[in-house]
Structures are given as C-alpha cells and as structure tokens.
C-alpha cells in the first residue's frame, strides 16, 4: 500500500533522499547494524526516531520542518501533506522501534554503486539480520534509517525516517509511511497466494502477488533483505514475458480497436486490491470518450486474461497522453461485463 509520493496512490508517503544533496565524487559506502553501533549513536538514532514520530502523530509539521535538512525544508509541502494525511491515524499510538541502520558515505573508494551492505552475509548472500540499501551517489556524510512499527485503527504501519547527521544532531532527510498489510493480509499471505496461483498456471496472478509480497516485506523501497531476495528469485520463475513496463509496450486487441499498454501493476485502493493498467492515447480532452476507452480496455484485459477476476477486486484504467497527463476511471470486477 502506498501513499502520496509512492507508486500511484494514497497509503504510503515516500520522500526519500532525493531531497538530500548529491555529488559526483567517487566514494565508499559502509553500513552498521544496530548491534554494530556504539551505544551513544544507537540511543541517539532511536531517540530521534521516537521524537519525530511524536511530531508526526501530533500533526507538528512545523517542528519536523525545523529539524529537517535545508534542501528538504526548502521544499516541504510533501512532508506537510504526509503529516496531514497520517496524523489522525497515528495519534495516540505508541510505536515500537526496529533496529536502526547507520550508513556512511566517504570519498575514499571507486565504488559508485551506492550499495550499503549491512550485517553479516553468508555464502548464499543475505542472512536473517542483514540488509542492503541502494542509494547511488550519496553525498559524503553519515546517515541513518530509523523505522518504527505502529499498530493503528487502520492496521499495522511502518514509519521510516531517513536521517542525516549534522554535528551532534540527526536531521530529517526523508519520510516513508507505509501500511504493512492489505486488508489484513501481510507479505507471507500474498506470497502463499502467489504460490497457489502458480500451481494453477495463473502466472500473471502469481507474478503480481509476488510483487505485492515483496513490497510489503520492507518498509522502504530502496531496502532489500533475505526475505525480499528469496521472493525475487522465486518470482522470476513465473515472470510473464508479455507484461508492459520499463519502456516496453504491449498491444491489447479490443472490439474494433487496439490499445498500446505501457504499464500494468497492482495497487491498493482503500481496502481493495486492484489492478492498474495504463495505455497510450492521443487526447483526453473528451472525458466521456476517455471513459468509454477506459472501459473498453478493462473488458479487453479480462478477455485476454480472465484469471484476473480471481485475483483482484477491480481495475483502474488510465489513458495517458504524450505529456504524461492522464484520465483514470475505476470499476469493480463485478461491474466489468
């Protein structure tokens, strides 16, 4: 589930380090897990995470801005919207901190991959307590990732603060608020359903459920763990060759017309697990016509992939013009006939 700056919709806010200052310098990356940190540093990061969570839960956007790095403070509307969107849900919640990570970037190496390897790795890669963060070309300095789990009336959430050290202070550099379940279902449930679809040879459904399982497994998109690595390896065995995305298009035949699809992905709308389809169109000026085209795309999609009826609550179709502007509409699966 995603929020304002996430993958298309409203339940998770991602304002990651792109507000931080970047530099073309060649640098090395190191990472410390919570157990590797010295006690003062660990306590400071945990304390700042709790303090910023308290500000978020009280709706104190001004306090967060005052404690933000300058580049983020100068463009703070996204954070302010996140505070407004999440304050009521998080109000009065006592969070539980997860073990934090400290990331250090310097200019002493030729490694520009941006990979921060945290913890102990075995012969098969990551272990239960390890993690990898991928943040290319991060400016030299010390950073931290502090995640707190929050049990709310809407279900469990993970709130992650990206921090940058400034003197003895840890400044706010990014915020990520993410639901860790979809309608009561967590990553393990989605992975289990993906395997069930795989056994039925419903590989498209299996792929999308693995995608959701992997997304729910971590609190931030630039982090991977042993669980996400295993899911990635598993999902590759069912990846359909005909999916659009990453610059690749796919033709979708419909009655009297063919549509060019540009992306297809799962998305949560309220408590519904929906499928989003984006396609190319020349104009959306006539919204009535755009709605008819959207409906035609939904029908054609189900005609080509009837298995989607078993996996999703509805379909969101978005007609996209060359400028990137789009017109979207949504129908429940039962209403697409």
What does this structure look like?
The chain folds into 3 domains: about 10-180, Nuclear Transport Factor 2, Chain: A, CATH 3.10.450; about 185-235, no CATH class; about 250-335, Trna Endonuclease, Chain: A, domain 1. It has 8 helices and 17 strands. About 40% of the residues are buried. With about 325 residues, the chain is α+β, with helices and mostly antiparallel strands. The protein is globular. The strands form 4 sheets. Strands 1, 2, 3, 4, 9, 10 and 11 form a 7-stranded antiparallel β-sheet that branches. A 5-stranded mixed β-sheet has the order 13-14-15-16-17. The two termini are about 25 Å apart.
Keywords:
3 domains, 8 helices, Trna Endonuclease, Chain: A, domain 1, seven-stranded antiparallel sheet, 337 residues, alpha+beta, Nuclear Transport Factor 2, Chain: A
- Helical residues, percent: 25-40%
Q: Note the overall shape.
A: globular
Report how far apart the termini are. Answer: 27 Å
Architecture of the largest domain in CATH? Roll
Work out the strand percent.
Answer: 25-35%
Biggest sheet details: 7 strands, antiparallel
Radius of gyration: 21 Å
| Count of discrete alpha- or pi-helical segments spanning 4 or more residues | 8
Task: Tell me, rounded to a whole number, the average pLDDT.
Answer: 90
Find the CATH topology of the largest domain. Nuclear Transport Factor 2, Chain: A
CATH class of the largest domain: Alpha Beta
Work out the count of structural domains. Answer: 3
Helix and strand succession?
Answer: EEHHHHEEEEEEEEEHHEHEEEHEE
Query: What's the count of strands?
Result: 17
Structural class: alpha+beta
Instruction: Give the uncertain stretches in residue-range form.
Output: 1-27
């Amino acid at each position: 589930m995603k929020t304002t700056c996430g993958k298309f919709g409203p339940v998770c806010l991602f304002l990651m380090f792109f507000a931080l200052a970047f530099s073309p310098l060649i640098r090395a990356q190191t990472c410390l897990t919570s157990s590797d940190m010295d006690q003062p540093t660990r306590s400071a990061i945990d304390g700042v995470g709790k303090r910023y969570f308290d500000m978020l839960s009280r709706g104190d956007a001004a306090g967060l801005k005052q404690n933000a790095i300058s580049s983020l403070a100068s463009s703070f509307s996204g954070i302010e919207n996140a505070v407004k969107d999440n304050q009521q849900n998080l109000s009065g919640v006592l969070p539980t901190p997860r073990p934090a990570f400290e990331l250090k970037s310097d200019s002493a190496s030729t490694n520009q991959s941006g990979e921060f390897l945290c913890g102990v790795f075995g012969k098969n890669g990551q272990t239960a307590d390890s993690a990898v963060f991928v943040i290319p070309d991060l400016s030299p300095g010390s950073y931290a990732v502090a995640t707190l789990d929050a049990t709310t009336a809407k279900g469990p959430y993970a709130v992650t603060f990206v921090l940058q050290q400034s003197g003895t202070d840890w400044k706010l550099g990014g915020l990520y608020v993410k639901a860790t379940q979809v309608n009561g279902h967590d990553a393990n449930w989605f992975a289990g359903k993906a395997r069930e679809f795989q056994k039925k040879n419903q590989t498209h459904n299996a792929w999308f459920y693995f995608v959701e399982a992997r997304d729910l497994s971590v609190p931030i998109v630039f982090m991977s763990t042993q669980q996400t690595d295993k899911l990635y390896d598993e999902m590759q065995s069912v990846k359909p060759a005909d999916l659009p995305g990453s610059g690749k298009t796919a033709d979708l035949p419909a009655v009297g017309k063919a549509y060019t699809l540009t992306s297809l992905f799962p998305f949560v709308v309220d408590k519904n697990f929906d499928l989003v389809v984006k396609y190319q169109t020349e104009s959306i000026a006539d919204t009535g016509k755009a709605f008819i085209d959207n409906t035609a795309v939904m029908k054609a999609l189900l005609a080509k992939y009837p298995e989607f009826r078993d996996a999703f609550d509805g379909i969101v179709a978005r007609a996209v013009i060359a400028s990137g502007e789009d017109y979207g509409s949504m129908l429940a699966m039962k209403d697409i006939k």
